[in-house]
Amino acid sequence: MERELDLVYKRVSTGVKGLDELLGGGLLLGRVYVVTGPPGSGKTTLGIQFLIEGAKHNEKGVYISIVDDARTIIQDMLHFKFNLLYYLKSKKIVIYDLSNFISEGNKKPTWGEVLDEIKRIILQENAKRVVIDSFTPLEFLVEDPENKRREITRLIKLLSTMKVTAITITEMLESDKYTDDQYVASGVIVMHHFMRQYQMIRAIQILKMRGTAHDTNMKKMRITEDGVVVYNEAPW
């Protein structure tokens, strides 16, 4: 019983310097988390760092892109010191582009069909870490947008039984409105950027995190050649 409890509360590192400390040691194993924010706030970078951290410890990672192709994602990450190409060549990280699956044929897919394809990929790759980027455009590409919460809840339960830790990336369209996946996920991390006294300010905020005591205030964040770095201090 104690061993089972240890597994339930096992933490996995995000790979983001400074963030694990704010999360009480990292993310909980087998949970699904939402990372949201405006364009250019560092969401994809954080997702790649999460997968690379797993790959370093022989946890296979899968990046599932809804819109961007693998080439674009790789090109965007090459200026970081991630050594991403090594992990791709060694198959410790695999990138999938779902745009062809979603657009093929004359009929829009349902939420269930898209998430079943995501499940198939995860099982095929025996992935332990998954990043899905992003659910936001799917709301306009599926036949049944009203079924989003039900199908995502089903996917979350499945990932939990498989002990897969996942990050879903979403675009923050309106700061005062929450999406279905934010309600059902175990945590929500918001990435911000805004101008203050003619300077660009970057910040990160742990809006929700089940099973972890956390500070909900914005924290200073930088994007460096090593990726996203978080500081336990106010952003200004």
UniProtKB/TrEMBL annotation:
One matching Pfam family: ATPase
Keyword Nucleotide-binding attached: yes
Coiled coil region boundaries: none
InterPro entries: KaiC-like_dom, KaiC_dom, P-loop_NTPase
Keywords, alphabetical: ATP-binding, Nucleotide-binding
Superkingdom to which the source organism belongs: Archaea
KaiC domain residues: 10-236
Stored Gene3D superfamilies: P-loop containing nucleotide triphosphate hydrolases
One of the record's GO molecular function terms: ATP binding
Name the UniProt record assigns to this protein: AAA family ATPase
Source organism of this protein record: Thermococcus aggregans
